[in-house]
């Protein structure tokens, strides 16, 4: 990009700023929240909503680090962007709030 090679020793961040590419973390957050919007707007009897309601009881916890569940990650993403779950029903507003430019 822009004719630079490794020999020029220009940092990745500088090239990303010139090309105006968004961070991978932000794009992943955008796609997670977009899918969350689809799930919440879906019918309550849809298979994906029924799976969301299931409670994982009786699972044996190991000695390793606890698993990170999708709902926990979504809550973190929503708190980071200061979003509420009821905002998902307005599709246009939800898209503008979760969209990452770049």
Mean pLDDT: 86
Query: How far is it from the N-terminal to the C-terminal residue, by CA?
Result: 16 Å
Report the sheet-strand fraction: under 5%
Rg, please? 19 Å
SS element count, helices: 5
pLDDT < 50 stretches: none
Q: Tell me, what's the shape?
A: flat
Largest sheet at a glance?
Answer: none
Order of helices and strands: HHHHH
Estimated structural class: mainly alpha
Proportion in helices:
40-55%
> How many beta-strand elements?
0
Describe the model.
By secondary structure, this protein is mainly α. Helix content is 52%, strand content 0%. It has helices spanning 12-19, 24-41, 47-53, 70-81, 91-98. The radius of gyration is 19 Å and the shape is flat. The model has no long low-confidence stretch (mean pLDDT 86).
Q: Which helices and strands occur, and which strands form pairs?
A:
Layout: H1 12-19, H2 24-41, H3 47-53, H4 70-81, H5 91-98
Helix pairs in contact: 2-5
Task: State the gist of this model.
Helix content is 52%, strand content 0%.
Provide keyphrases for this structure.
mainly alpha, flat, 102 residues
């Amino acid at each position: 990009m822009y004719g630079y090679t490794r020999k020029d020793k220009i940092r990745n961040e500088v090239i990303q700023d010139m090309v105006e590419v968004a961070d991978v973390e932000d794009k992943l957050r955008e796609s997670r929240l977009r899918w969350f919007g689809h799930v919440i707007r879906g019918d309550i009897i849809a298979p994906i909503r029924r799976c969301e309601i299931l409670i994982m009881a009786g699972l044996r916890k190991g000695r390793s680090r606890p698993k990170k569940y999708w709902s926990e990650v979504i809550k973190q993403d929503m708190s980071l962007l200061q979003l509420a779950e009821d905002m998902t029903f307005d599709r246009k507003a939800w898209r503008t709030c979760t969209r990452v430019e770049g």
